[in-house]
């Protein structure tokens, strides 16, 4: 990779890490609506990879792979946000589910079941499952989602050191602890799905095979878990 000392062969790096871009793009696709094309995510990811190659100043190896993965994900997220990838109507549906979740949890003193949520939303259970399937694109949690108008920024409330770099803020201990606590409070099946998908990096089909349910059912469980986590983190 080094034709002369200290000079990187960028083309070689692109070839070597292109599979990483594809893997990240396909992993993110399970959280997005069908209207999003995986090829668009891969293209955005390749831009992130090039940016990583141009910016990286450390020693190459696994450290670079971790750094590149962050830049690739960030580039894909930027592309999604700029492309207005989720219709306003679906965001409204997700918000209705979250508002209902909050109201029921306050009333019942525990996380509401799917049937309780469906009844409160004046839906059948099948209709509620279909709605979860539709809004699966509302999976990417933006920090703007955790604040109201005229309110301090979500990260400002969690991170007192305003001089932190963005990466340092994202890795802030309190934020990670809050997320871990929120996941621990999920209903058992939702917690299992989150662990399999994010810790073991299993895709939805593989999780469905383990749990004995369909891929679409795993998607619904995942969407519902994300809604609960968003509510927990907003209340910080």
From TrEMBL:
Domain of life, source organism: Bacteria
PROSITE patterns, per the entry: SIGMA70_1, SIGMA70_2
Swiss-Prot/TrEMBL keywords: Cell projection, Cilium, Cytoplasm, DNA-binding, Flagellum, Sigma factor, Transcription, Transcription regulation
GO CC terms of this entry: cytoplasm
One Pfam family from the record: Sigma70_r3
Gene Ontology BP terms: DNA-templated transcription initiation
Every RNA polymerase sigma-70 domain range: 40-53, 203-229
Localization, UniProt: Cytoplasm
Region described as Sigma-70 factor domain-4: spans on this chain: 182-230
Cross-referenced CDD domains: Sigma70_r4
NCBIfam families: FliA_WhiG, PRK06986.1, sigma70-ECF
HAMAP family: Sigma70_FliA
Job description of the protein: Sigma factors are initiation factors that promote the attachment of RNA polymerase to specific initiation sites and are then released. This sigma factor controls the expression of flagella-related genes.
Family recorded in the similarity comment: Belongs to the sigma-70 factor family. FliA subfamily.
Name the UniProt record assigns to this protein: RNA polymerase sigma factor FliA
